[in-house]
Amino acid sequence: MGSDQELSGPDGGTGSRPPRPAGVRVGVLGVGYWGSKQLRVMRSTPGIARAVAIDARLPLLSGMAHLLATGDGFTSLQAALPHIDALVIATPPATHVPLGLEAIRAGKHVLIEKPLATTAAGARELIAAAEIAGVTLMVGHTFEYNGAVWMLRELVQTQELGDLYYMDSSRLNLGLYQTDVNVIFDLAPHDISITNHVLGSTPTSVQAWGSHHVDPIFEDVAFLKLGYDDIGVQAHIHLSWLDPRKVRLITAVGSKKMAVYDDTNVEERVRIHDKAALRGAPGNGSAEGISYHHGAVTSPVVAFEEPLAVQARHFVECLTTGARPRTDGANGLAVVEVIQAAQLSLAEDRKVLLREIAEEPRGPRPGLIPAPRRATTATAV
Asked: Left (φ > 0), alpha (ψ -120 to 50) or beta: where does 71 sit?
């Protein structure tokens, strides 16, 4: 099975661009639920000289208004740009491209939360702009900086599980309903990026099914089937805002063993099941010639560190050394292409080949992407 990254761990990186100075000044644009976490982590990351909040609603946000008086807060990106070297964008998805382009064209390094863009064309525009400006573009695929995901990747890449048959993901909860995107845009980037990372590959086809039960416009339940034809593996993703349980589960099934990554189990995030179904000669206990191997279940120790902190350190490392981020623009584009293909599959009720998205000359058809909110460019999420 091919691998597009070294098995060196979640904090590594490679690249050859010239070094950049330390003492980075970072702005976090949008300090709502997730942006406030980014602000907290950036303030405690070595190599960051200053981290400021940027949000049009800053005077109204609990615990944030005082930042305006201390000079650590701004109500617009335009006001903040002269005071920062890099920008973290944690605003609604439809704003990612215009805000990212504004920062990149001002010569700022950018980390954009998932998804990188709402269309492949938008993601490509960001990549091209960053290349021209000579700045770092990184996407917030946080799970690719998670030690448990790296362990799952190693189990697959070293064939500890044998030949991989398939992967299965479930990301379920009761809410949180979004007002500008469906459940695929909201949750699928996590599982797509994890699956791409674990497999060291990208899908060749996508088929999606979805329905909206509570929201009259956006799907709140969806199923995706991703075909990785180059390595002969399929991945299935179940997404829901309408489930009684909080589930964050990924299963990898191989010819020798099976592994389960449960992000809600803080004691045993990864469990390896020494179980398999084996085809043999008739008469071995099954008329069909299938026998079953049942061995031990082990739970290896996973050294846990907050993935957001690992990601922040890697971002600073890339800015100061010129290394290319592990989750660079191309990484983000690969996920956006799958999301766009899934939207097209929903709309046309068919399997979509990823090359259709790569070859699409005029962008996606109307109605396949979310519309921007009527809000300022620094609205929190």
From this structure: left
